[in-house]
Amino acid sequence: MTLEQYIEEHTSPPPAELQSVERATNLYLHNPRMCSGAVQGRLLKMLTLMIRPRLVLELGTYSGYSALSIAEGLANDAVLHTIEANDELEDFIRANLSRSPHGGKVRLHIGDAAELTDTVAPGEAFDLAFIDADKRAYPLYYDKVKRRIRPGGYIVADNTLWDGHVVETGHDDAQTEGVRRFNDIVASDPDAEQVILPLRDGLTIIRLR
């Protein structure tokens, strides 16, 4: 048994509908590793229960697994706005949302995350944001999302260790550089306090002062 398997066996299991989403993701989508998975999904739910947000923003929906994990922790009158750039995934995502009793809390937007972040829920401040979209644009996402978060709100960013490439020489591709720049920007931001968790591919939790 690996340590990862041990952790999963000793973490509360996701509900049946999320297990179905994960199976469908592995069967029908390219690069299913992008799916948050059971342990990260349970952490997203738990963080949501702890923060108790009224309004949540997600950049990068993919199959909808992370959105539904967050929605599971939301109060019935709270809303999650999620943005997905790939319009070919829309039907797949909506089918997955319909499987869950929490899917009604999710509002799906198809388009460019950098553009839609400025226009989703106009005039509202988000309590929590989850960034899991184009790694090359992480620094831009941080700038745009930060403007939409209330003081004392939270940003969670996925893939911030990027398979360890952030500390390896010879990895100077645009995605690795985007993640590195994001990590450096957050670490030097006087408005933020943050911690990187070595969960899966790295998960950064940021609180805005």
Q: Total domains, how many?
A: 1
Number of DSSP E strands:
7
- Provide the low-confidence segments as ranges: none
In terms of DSSP E residues, the strand content is 15-25%
Highest CATH level, the class: Alpha Beta
Write out the CATH superfamily name. Vaccinia Virus protein VP39
CATH architecture: 3-Layer(aba) Sandwich
Shape type: globular
The order of strands across the largest sheet is 3-2-1-4-5-7-6
SSE-based structural type: alpha/beta
Largest sheet: 7 strands, mixed
Q: Order of SSEs, N→C?
A: HHHEHEHEHEHEHEE
Q: Roughly how many Å is the radius of gyration?
A: 16 Å
Q: Looking at CATH, which topology would you report?
A: Rossmann fold
Distance between the termini: 41 Å
Q: Helix count? A: 8
* Percent in helix: 25-40%
| Overall pLDDT score | 96
Concise structural overview:
The protein has eight helices and seven strands; from the N terminus they run H-H-H-E-H-E-H-E-H-E-H-E-H-E-E. The chain has 209 residues and is an alpha/beta fold.
Describe this structure as you would to a colleague.
- Helix 3 runs parallel beside helix 4 (65-72) and helix 7 packs parallel to helix 8 (174-187).
- It contains eight helices and seven strands, in the order αααβαβαβαβαβαββ.
- A hairpin with a 5-residue loop joins strand 6 (192-197) and strand 7 (203-208).
- The mean pLDDT is 96.
- Strands 3-2-1-4-5-7-6 form a seven-stranded mixed β-sheet, sandwiched between helices.
- It has helices at 3-9, 16-28, 37-51, 65-72, 90-99, 113-116, 138-148, 174-187, and strands at residues 55-59, 79-84, 106-110, 126-131, 149-158, 192-197, 203-208.
- It is globular and about 40 Å long.
- It is of the alpha/beta class.
- 40% of the residues are buried.
- It is 39% helix and 21% strand.
- The protein has a single domain, classed as Rossmann fold (3-Layer(aba) Sandwich).
- The termini are far apart.
